[in-house]
Amino acid sequence: MVIGYTTGVFDLFHIGHLNMLKNAKAMCDKLIVGVTVDELVAYKHKKAVIPFEERLEIVRSVKYVDVAIAQTSMDKFEMWQKLGFDVMFVGDDWYGTQKWQDYEKQFREVGVRIVYFPYTKGTSSTLINETLTSLREKRLPGENQV
Length: 146
Known about the structure:
The chain is an alpha/beta fold. It contains six helices and five strands.
Protein backbone atom coordinates (compact mmCIF):
# COMPACT_ATOMS: atom_id res chain seq x y z
CA MET A 1 0.00 0.00 0.00
CA VAL A 2 1.39 3.40 -1.03
CA ILE A 3 0.68 6.13 1.52
CA GLY A 4 0.71 9.73 0.30
CA TYR A 5 0.90 12.91 2.33
CA THR A 6 0.33 16.57 1.58
CA THR A 7 -0.34 19.69 3.59
CA GLY A 8 -1.93 23.06 3.17
CA VAL A 9 -3.91 25.83 4.78
CA PHE A 10 -6.90 25.12 2.50
CA ASP A 11 -8.41 28.51 3.27
CA LEU A 12 -11.17 29.58 0.88
CA PHE A 13 -11.12 26.10 -0.70
CA HIS A 14 -10.90 26.36 -4.50
CA ILE A 15 -10.36 24.30 -7.67
CA GLY A 16 -6.58 24.36 -7.26
CA HIS A 17 -6.95 22.62 -3.89
CA LEU A 18 -9.35 20.08 -5.35
CA ASN A 19 -7.11 19.33 -8.33
CA MET A 20 -4.09 18.79 -6.10
CA LEU A 21 -5.98 16.37 -3.85
CA LYS A 22 -7.45 14.52 -6.83
CA ASN A 23 -4.05 14.17 -8.52
CA ALA A 24 -2.37 13.13 -5.28
CA LYS A 25 -4.97 10.43 -4.61
CA ALA A 26 -4.44 9.07 -8.14
CA MET A 27 -0.81 8.39 -7.19
CA CYS A 28 -1.34 6.58 -3.89
CA ASP A 29 -3.63 4.12 -2.17
CA LYS A 30 -4.16 6.18 0.97
CA LEU A 31 -3.98 9.99 1.07
CA ILE A 32 -3.33 11.75 4.37
CA VAL A 33 -3.77 15.52 4.35
CA GLY A 34 -2.36 17.85 6.99
CA VAL A 35 -4.46 20.99 7.44
CA THR A 36 -2.47 23.86 8.91
CA VAL A 37 -3.69 25.01 12.31
CA ASP A 38 -4.46 28.72 12.74
CA GLU A 39 -1.36 29.31 14.89
CA LEU A 40 0.92 28.08 12.08
CA VAL A 41 -0.84 30.18 9.44
CA ALA A 42 0.56 33.18 11.31
CA TYR A 43 4.10 32.18 10.25
CA LYS A 44 3.29 33.74 6.87
CA HIS A 45 2.03 36.83 8.69
CA LYS A 46 -1.48 35.89 7.55
CA LYS A 47 -4.75 34.97 9.18
CA ALA A 48 -7.05 32.31 7.77
CA VAL A 49 -10.53 33.52 6.83
CA ILE A 50 -12.07 30.14 7.61
CA PRO A 51 -11.37 28.78 11.13
CA PHE A 52 -9.22 25.65 11.40
CA GLU A 53 -11.99 23.26 12.51
CA GLU A 54 -14.09 24.24 9.48
CA ARG A 55 -11.15 23.94 7.07
CA LEU A 56 -10.38 20.51 8.52
CA GLU A 57 -13.98 19.37 8.02
CA ILE A 58 -14.05 20.67 4.44
CA VAL A 59 -10.87 18.75 3.57
CA ARG A 60 -12.09 15.67 5.45
CA SER A 61 -15.24 15.74 3.28
CA VAL A 62 -13.37 15.64 -0.04
CA LYS A 63 -13.77 12.18 -1.56
CA TYR A 64 -10.08 11.93 -2.49
CA VAL A 65 -8.95 12.38 1.12
CA ASP A 66 -8.71 9.28 3.28
CA VAL A 67 -7.54 11.02 6.46
CA ALA A 68 -7.34 14.71 7.37
CA ILE A 69 -5.24 15.70 10.38
CA ALA A 70 -4.00 18.86 12.04
CA GLN A 71 -0.65 20.11 10.79
CA THR A 72 0.86 21.49 13.99
CA SER A 73 4.47 21.69 12.82
CA MET A 74 6.12 22.87 9.61
CA ASP A 75 8.65 20.02 9.93
CA LYS A 76 7.65 17.56 7.19
CA PHE A 77 10.26 15.00 8.27
CA GLU A 78 8.80 14.96 11.77
CA MET A 79 5.44 14.10 10.21
CA TRP A 80 7.04 11.30 8.20
CA GLN A 81 8.42 9.86 11.46
CA LYS A 82 4.86 9.84 12.86
CA LEU A 83 2.98 8.72 9.73
CA GLY A 84 5.45 6.72 7.65
CA PHE A 85 4.25 7.94 4.25
CA ASP A 86 5.88 6.82 0.98
CA VAL A 87 5.32 9.88 -1.17
CA MET A 88 4.83 13.55 -0.39
CA PHE A 89 2.95 15.93 -2.67
CA VAL A 90 3.76 19.64 -2.78
CA GLY A 91 3.13 22.62 -5.06
CA ASP A 92 5.84 23.39 -7.58
CA ASP A 93 6.14 26.91 -6.21
CA TRP A 94 8.45 25.27 -3.61
CA TYR A 95 10.57 23.45 -6.20
CA GLY A 96 14.24 24.41 -6.10
CA THR A 97 14.01 26.33 -2.82
CA GLN A 98 16.74 25.60 -0.28
CA LYS A 99 14.19 24.28 2.21
CA TRP A 100 12.83 21.72 -0.25
CA GLN A 101 16.26 20.77 -1.59
CA ASP A 102 17.11 19.88 2.01
CA TYR A 103 13.85 17.91 2.34
CA GLU A 104 14.57 16.06 -0.93
CA LYS A 105 17.94 14.92 0.40
CA GLN A 106 16.51 13.94 3.78
CA PHE A 107 13.55 12.05 2.28
CA ARG A 108 15.68 10.34 -0.39
CA GLU A 109 17.71 8.74 2.40
CA VAL A 110 14.56 7.04 3.78
CA GLY A 111 13.03 6.18 0.38
CA VAL A 112 10.30 8.84 0.29
CA ARG A 113 9.55 10.38 -3.09
CA ILE A 114 8.53 14.04 -3.41
CA VAL A 115 6.14 14.89 -6.24
CA TYR A 116 5.72 18.54 -7.24
CA PHE A 117 2.36 19.49 -8.74
CA PRO A 118 1.94 22.57 -10.93
CA TYR A 119 0.58 25.55 -9.04
CA THR A 120 -2.87 26.48 -10.35
CA LYS A 121 -2.34 29.67 -12.33
CA GLY A 122 -4.79 32.47 -11.64
CA THR A 123 -6.34 30.83 -8.57
CA SER A 124 -5.25 31.13 -4.97
CA SER A 125 -6.89 31.80 -1.64
CA THR A 126 -4.83 34.98 -1.39
CA LEU A 127 -6.11 36.19 -4.78
CA ILE A 128 -9.72 35.32 -3.85
CA ASN A 129 -9.39 37.17 -0.54
CA GLU A 130 -7.80 40.23 -2.21
CA THR A 131 -10.60 40.28 -4.80
CA LEU A 132 -13.27 40.12 -2.09
CA THR A 133 -11.58 42.92 -0.15
CA SER A 134 -11.37 45.02 -3.30
CA LEU A 135 -15.04 44.44 -4.10
CA ARG A 136 -16.05 45.39 -0.56
CA GLU A 137 -14.06 48.63 -0.78
CA LYS A 138 -15.79 49.61 -4.05
CA ARG A 139 -19.27 49.81 -2.53
CA LEU A 140 -21.17 52.94 -3.40
CA PRO A 141 -21.71 55.49 -0.61
CA GLY A 142 -24.81 54.66 1.38
CA GLU A 143 -24.75 50.91 0.59
CA ASN A 144 -25.24 48.66 3.58
CA GLN A 145 -22.05 47.25 5.04
CA VAL A 146 -22.18 43.58 5.91
